[in-house]
Request: fold
Amino acid sequence: MTNCNALIPAPVLQRKAIVYIRQSTPQQVQANQESQRRQYELVDVARLHGFANVEVIDDDLGRSASGTVERPGFDRLVAALCAGQVGAVLCLDASRLARNGRDWHHLLELCGLVEARVIDLDGIYDPCRPNDRLLLGMKGSISEFELGLIRSRMYEAARSKARRGELRIATPIGYTWDRNVGLGVDPDCRLQEVIRLVFQKFLELGSARQVLLWMASENIHFPYPTDGRTLTSFEWRPIRYRNVISILKNPFYAGVYAYGKSEKRTQIVDGRARKSYGHRRPMDAWDVFIKDHHEGYISWLEYERNQKILAGNAYGQVGETKSGRGGQALLSSLIHCARCGRRLTVAYVGRDRRPVYRCDRPNLQLGQKRCFTFGGKRVDEAIASEMLRAVTPLAIEAAKEAGRMLKDGETDRRRIAELEQQQAKYDASLAERRYAACDPDNRLIAAQLEKAWEAALQRVEACRQQIETLDAARVEQARPDFTGLADDLAAAWKAPKATMRTRQRLVRSLITEIIADVDDAAREVILVIHWKGGQHSELRVKKPKTGEHGCSTPEQALAIMRSMAGRWSDQDIAASLNRMGMPTGQGKTWTAHRVGSIRRVNNIHGYLPADKSGEWLTMRDAATKLGVSHHQIRKLIKAGVLKSEQIMPDAPHQIRAVDLESEYVSVGLKRKGRPCRATPENQLSMFSDTYEGGAE
Reply:
């Protein structure tokens, strides 16, 4: 080390001296003014040593010298040294120039090559001399070690405090740190209701995007902080998808205190270390994980269930069931092959895009023969019928739950609207007070405050109209009668508003998986259903023949046609089928033309009026023969006076012609004012028949 009073060679003094000034963080630049002032005073030190040309480099104020951040000021210093323009480098201490060995030793190497001096408060150093070079190297190593020691102490102190759950980490929206109470739920009721509504709707809809679409359709807003990370002032704007997904994926809302969820990664770019932060770590690698640390919006079990649903929605994992996303295939990703164990894929064929289940992975991956293929319409209908049969005993409870959910949904929407109205009234009151406190003569400010007050009042009026609209909708719209749901689950399943996405979710809530196989000899699809809870059942579905379409007439309707044909006309058969609620294969009502077409295709002989023997009569024929109305014939049949036959309930009556000549029928037609009943021969009447005596 050269003595401070020693003369620096004249050629070195003719060069310029560079005063390098640096502070590590912007906070130090603003707060540590004394350190900055001492570094600027090095200009006087340089002139004291005889340098006439002094340059100050302070481009690196607020930048770290650890080697992970670009320092344009340090690069300028190195460039000037390489050009041979620098005679001395002045710094407060070695840590200001560099905090890593690479930059420090590179600087010393350049100073030694151009015979430049390094000057700090302790003296003048000549890097060309071994002793000075050794001392400068030790100072750089100490500076690097000091930085590592400071970081280690800081991080260990933070981890120690975090293990006790006392470290004040950044909290998400919905929580706040209180100086006296500590961590707690945000006292803003409107904010709490919006967050709870996100979890509630995700439980109902099962998809983050569906939650977003529902909240957007209901015009429900979400808070956005306007004051940085302090979360004390919010601006309510339309919700976005990232808001929904951040709430659902954050374990903080489940009462979990977590520290060390992310990690930093370092890469070498252009010979310099580059650090990136915020890389997610797996849950089992978190540094601190404390359950039930604070009050949560949901339980930990519900959080885990939400994560499974989100993972299934994102992609089909191995061993997991893909979520229902609509389409025309009810059992997509639920059916597995009984032969190879692979999941069956769905293909859509034909003009109407009919679903077809097939196991073609062996063919695509190994070039082997496909296991089997079968149509999806009949299988889907069979599984739906089996599922509805299984849940029929619980239909009443389901109807009650549906009514409760509808009522809760209406209540939630009104409560959100009321909280929004309260917030709007407060904002309007605050704007009014600000306008009243302003000097009316100061129009530059008063005009802006008046405009803000007017906007707040318009917001209050909009909230009031929204509440009135909700109330009017509740009064005008008749609440659905869910009691009918217990009586006709099939109609509810086929309702137009019941989307395929809803049906897929219902199936997945009851069925774990389905193992499918095809019996080629019997032409049947064998389905083994694994229900939730461990129960299993087998179902066989007839596989259609080649060329057989799915719009064939039901067998029950064909049986009725066979039994009624020959004695009844096509028009009577069509009326009977319509009364019994049996549609055609295409879901249409029956007409005489359609009945005739089906009869001819299935070789069913029809009704021929010319071949009628007269032994059997219809109700119309019987009424015509007796000269009475249909109503009187129906009364005789209902009272048991006139015998008739029906193939099945609601089918036309068949009456023998000889039965019309019965004495009981004649007596029943003459009676008036009392029910027509057949009187047994051995029964004595308590009262005389008034009609026999006439007016006597």
Observations:
- The CA atoms of residues 523 and 545 lie 8 Å apart.
- DSSP finds 26 helices and 22 strands in the chain.
- The chain has five domains: 10-159, 175-256+291-314, 315-550, 555-599, 616-692.
- The longest strand covers residues 272-280.
